[in-house]
Amino acid sequence: MSNLANGIHSAARGASDDAAVRERADPALVRADRVEQLYSQLPLGLVATVVIGVIAAVELHEGRLIGLLLVWAGLLGAVVALHGLLYRSYRQDARRAENAGQWLRWLGIGAFAAGAVWGFAAAVFFPSHADERQVFLAFLLAGVISGGIPMYAASWPIFAAYGAAIALPFTYVLATFGNRLFAEIALLIPLFYGASVAIAYRLSGVFLSGYRLRHAYQRSLVELDEARRQIQASGRKLALFAERSPIAVFELDGEGVLREVNQAAEILFGYAADELVGSSVKRLMLARHHADFDREWQHLMASRQPATGVKVRILRRDGLTVVCEWTVTPLVNAEGALISVIAQGHDVTAQLEAERMKKEFTSTLSHELRTPLTSIIGSLQLINAGVLGEVTKDVRDLTEVAERNSQRLLDLINDILDIEKIDSGKLTLNPEVLSVDDLVREAMVLNKGFGDRFKVRFESQGELLRREVNADRKRLLQVMTNLLSNAAKFSPEGEVVQISTEQHGAWLRVAVHDRGPGIPEAFRSRIFGRFTQADSTTSRHKGGTGLGLAICKRLIEMMQGRIGFQDRDGGGTTFWFELPAHA
Amino acid sequence: MPERALERICYVEDDEDIQRIVRMSLERVGKMTVEVVSDPNQAIGVMMRFKPDLVMLDWMMPGMDGPTLFRKMKQDPQTSALPVVFITAKATQRDMEELIALGAAGTISKPFSPKDLPDQLRAIWAKLPAG
């Protein structure tokens, strides 16, 4: 659209701005016009030449010069005839506009030749005649020079060549005649010639700018026409967008009165467009919301800024209400005046209901599921811990299965709750200054039981750094637990999972190195996604919800850190996270 | 740290299953003496009679929730000094902080491990001021 607007703008400005005219007029077209102008003068020029030539021949014929006069008349006739041929060829050339340069050169040669024939007349006849014939001849030569100005006005260099061919020999004969008066006239001829060339030059400029203007104007007309067609096409497209759109579209004026209503809005609200157009949009709202709407509308009119996510409860014609979410865009012209307001809305009633149900579900999950699980896991733990005395091996095997699976269920619930909390922005962190080495040791102790289950040991690799980070202790332990339990799960029995701490500039890195099978290529890009496990059978055999790493990533990012993994030399994977070192 | 070991616990909880598990955990694993109260409205009377070292309150109970009972205890001079630990499945971080600020000794979230519960309580007990 902006290109289009520029086009219109420059087309409108084009006629008044000289530089813009020069830029917009095609030079080849302008030259073709000039050549056409020059050739169109040719027939008149030839008639004038013949008439003047005949008069001159009659006036100048005298017995002793009859031979020279015949030569001169022959030359003049030849020049006229060649010009006639030139004119005819030009007219017959279908591509004369493209060949304008060529035709201009030929005309230049012709003009110079015509000038030279008149110059010949001056050189030959002026010295050999008496006074009154000389006056006639001088008058005649001045006439043919002056006559050349309108003839060749469209190209001043052609006139200059033509005039010079006459003026030079004439000046020469005057200067060498031996008469003081003639010598003085000889001084005036170049002045006269110069003035004539100057006039031709000015005229030539006038022609040039005229032609340029014409072409710039023509081009502007073409562009304006194109712009008009583009605007019409965009208009049709926009109308189609609004008409066929599945979302409700309103056009309103500055007072909130509906100007146009699309089909989706008719269907959504149960009114025909005719019923709505011309009435205030408030008609679609409950009376108790009118004051709120007025305030919001005033704000919109004052700011002229688009508003998104505006939720409005709409009263349908059948008396039901739906909540619609609107994007409201004030359309403002270049001068800042409001043209109209476009409002696009869709029904979010079902979505809001779904969100409410999700919240309710989350709450149920949190309390109603965790409370019975507390009893189940608690009971099983007490049995398995031997608090109630020894039980048979078979019973013990089964109560252990039950405890492990209850724990899995609980982990899943906790993970889902965590994800939900993170998504809804309800998870708040309690950052404190923590010592990295203490944290790693604590995580190793906490996860020892899990490691024992998979017959995997946790060991620190080298000296642990005694540096501090500013982080949420509980959540960081959760991340550590996730990484350590993953490493244990995927390590072969009897292996050692190593934990190292490193400093990288301003970052402290904690890395967990395992000797597992590595991360399959296809899985790498979505390893931190949700419900992802490389092998779906893993979760059944080893436990895990597929949410752990997604939660870790979010938690670490919330603590201004980053998390990643890399292949380990000699097989296995290293998972790491980095947090800014506490100053 | 109080001079004597943690022995007498009063637990206010409406869920009978959890009551039983906590009692078993504290009595058998922790070797403590436990008095369980099902009705929060009678809790203060029981506390006055039983004279516990520490009180455990469930957060969500029908009739009166844990925080309300806690505030009532604070108003009664005979119970206001008792250390209180909340057991909760749902409280937000902010709820917990608020209770700690009001003077709760600690919080334990559900589900808890009955194996570890006595140690958790003793850890909270150890952090209390002497006297």
Question: Can you walk me through this structure?
Answer:
The complex is a heterodimer of chains A (583) and B (131). Chain A is of the alpha+beta class and 583 residues long. Chain A is 61% helix and 14% strand. Chain A contains 19 helices and 12 strands. In chain A, the strands form 3 sheets. Chain A has a 5-stranded antiparallel sheet with strand order 2-1-5-4-3. In chain A, strands 7-9-10-12-11 form a 5-stranded mixed sheet. The radius of gyration of chain A is 49 Å and the shape is elongated. Chain A starts with a helix and ends with a strand. With 131 residues, chain B is α/β, with parallel strands linked by helices. Chain B has a single domain, classed as 3-Layer(aba) Sandwich (Rossmann fold). Helices cover 43% and strands 18% of the residues of chain B. In chain B, strands 2-1-3-4-5 form a 5-stranded parallel sheet, sandwiched between helices. In chain B, helix 3 links the parallel strand 3 and strand 4. The radius of gyration of chain B is 13 Å and the shape is globular. The termini of chain B are close together. The interface between A and B is medium-sized, with 21 and 21 residues.
